[in-house]
Write a structure and sequence with these properties.
Elements: E1 2-6, E2 13-17, E3 28-33, E4 41-42, E5 45-49, H1 55-72, E6 77-81, H2 91-107, E7 111-115, H3 117-125, H4 132-143, H5 147-150, H6 161-181
Parallel strand pairs: 1-6, 3-5, 6-7
Antiparallel strand pairs: 1-2, 2-3, 4-5
Length: 183
Amino acid sequence: MIAGVDYSMTSPAICLSPLSEFKYETCIFSYLTTLKKYDIAAENIFGKYFEYDNEIKRYDTISSHFLNMLLDYNVRTCYIEGYSMGSKGRTFNISENTGIFKHRMWNFGINFIAIPPATIKKFATGKGNANKEKMQRAFIEETSKDIKQILNMTENQWNPSSDIIDSYYVCKYGFHQETLKNE
């Protein structure tokens, strides 16, 4: 298995795919949310509600969930969306959170490769500056699946759907990179 992770603060998501072929139907998605209404399982998408009362508890919960997914599915390489250079606000929190996850992967011998967000966007849409709408459109065109519809989201809501979509393209990018290595 290979993994692609969108390690956001609001609803981090992971996409797991077999190394034999990459397609939506064989992927497994999981995400974390602080909104109880998204604690659902639909098709191959599994949301899990969690609470936290401080940032370290939040980081620990998120990294534990994703590390357990990697270990449970025997993932040896995890592709993770890198930092956005245009990020505003809580950049130190994002860095601390991601650093804990990377450290835990390293402790378990899981390789991780960070991919710049612009690379993922260009891979998905042909444009390195694609917004959430373009990413969603590309995903629907490719998979015929509307994550917002599957999760009963409104058109104006973006999380967790955008994180799931990002994790899908990070995983797909990783799958293609691993395929190139093995040719």
